[in-house]
Design goal:
CATH superfamily: Nucleotidyltransferases  domain 2
Largest sheet: none
Structural class: mainly alpha
Distance between the termini: 12 Å
CATH architecture: Up-down Bundle
CATH class: Mainly Alpha
Strand content: under 5%
Radius of gyration: 16 Å
Helix content: 55-70%
Length: 155
Amino acid sequence: MATEEQAARARTYRDAGAEHITVARELYDSGRFVLANYAAGLAVECVLRAYRVMIDPEFDSRHDLDKLYSLAKFADVVPSQRVEEVTAALGDVVNLWSNDHRFLTEVALRKRWTKRKLYEGIRGDFVKERTRQLVNSASTIVNLGVARWKSSFKD
């Protein structure tokens, strides 16, 4: 059982995730794709950290969202009918987000994603489209994590 200090820290992470995903959407809508990208991934990290802190307050995932997802036992809160959707969403976030995106310009992000050929299959601005994909996938994870919190932990 989590201490009150752990629970308070976890709630702060959870609430930050909810705030950050809203900001990510606003940034995307205003054409600020790099910051939208960063905020969306950060929102996912916050929610996963919230779940992890409730299990164990000492951890270091080094922004590895796959590892953090596992350590947080987030799969345990995913309803069986949404496993495929959430797994795909996590894959998108892991594929498109990096903690160091906060240091990039849009030109630098475009160059990085071009090297990874993330433009394939996309007509138009692939940075805009991939960022839309990331924000939507991050929203899936964050919204689920926030919604399932009360059934997972006493608040």
